[in-house]
Amino acid sequence: MGVLDLFVVALMPVLKVLLVTAVGSLLAMERVNLLGRDAKQHVNNLVFYIFSPSLIASKLADTITLSSLVTLWFMPVNILLTFIIGSALAWVLIKLTRTPRHLQSLVIGCCAAGNLGNLLLIILPAVCTETNSPFGDSSTCSTYGEAYASLSMAIGAVYIWCYVYPLMRISAEKRAEETDPKDSTASLNADEVISGGLPEIITEPLLASEDSPSPMDCISQEDEICQTRFEGKTKILCLKKIRQHITTITEHIDIKKLFAPSTIAVIIGFIIGVASPIRKLIIGDDAPLRVIYNATDLLGEAAIPCITLIIGANLLRGLKRSTVSPVVIIGVITIRYIALPLIGIGVVKAAHHFGMVGSDALYQFTLMLQFALPPAMNVGTITQLLEAGENECSIIMLWTYAVASLSLTLWSTFFMWIVT
Asked: Is 202 a domain residue?
């Protein structure tokens, strides 16, 4: 199969996404105003609480079984690697560009979390149904493609709400504390203490006591006992600092948000798909409770078009001025569309070489594609929930998704050429 044919196969699903995204941007324009701020918020809530969980639960229950989980065990590891490598590269970008503190968690989220949900559910079936598809029979390819996309979407949702959300929540709360008027009151009280003298509470001398010797005293006196006591106190202080950091992270983890509707849908979908007796009751033409699955599947079908329309509406906000540096945007694009895909090829090829991934071309294509996707739209949902960084997120999404139209097509073509 020629490279031009592969390019056409890869281009069709990307164009489909672009057309629906353009409709979302059109509906969000002030002249039309069908997807204004309030309408978009309502649609976003419907997607978050109903459509997306229904899609995840129905797809998982229908396509994932215990045997398929055993076969696809490397996919959760592969997705975890995309998060770890993306976060590491984002940390390097933050240090090189000196990204402001309030944008650091957003940059990490955009580099770590790819759009593992609706894009794969659009791209994989569309690639399978093309007449020149290199993945064989269209019906068999579509069945496997939906299974791969469903598991990818489920695992991605769990990782996002267990890792990206707490990270961005900590950053949002720190920024709120920095801009809190109470801080200014506290600083005024501190000035009064300085100008008016020390408060009565401070009664101990400021010099170090005999129980707390300094390292210089230890060196000058060459007292081994003193040195041992000092090192012991240093270790205790280090342990206290580590404990404080762990406590800070655990305090900022919102258990309710970790068990977001999508996460609960993942659990329900896995239970139905893996437990054979429950599966026979709900899934299948002869299942007595098939109406539950049919209703859930019907609600889930609304998720992809709604999410894609919201993407278009959010991208329109990115045209407004923002505090994000162009260097940071270029860095995010470089990480997501150059560094991660190249690393992804090495990871999948190494996994195949060591027998962790089979010879299924569609499966290898899916694993590689997970490294080349644009940032997850759930990152934008998180900024809206936290009411922090919405404009900055919009402009990052604008440029990354604009470049994704070309990048996804080229990488999809190259991945198909490699695996077939």
From this structure: no
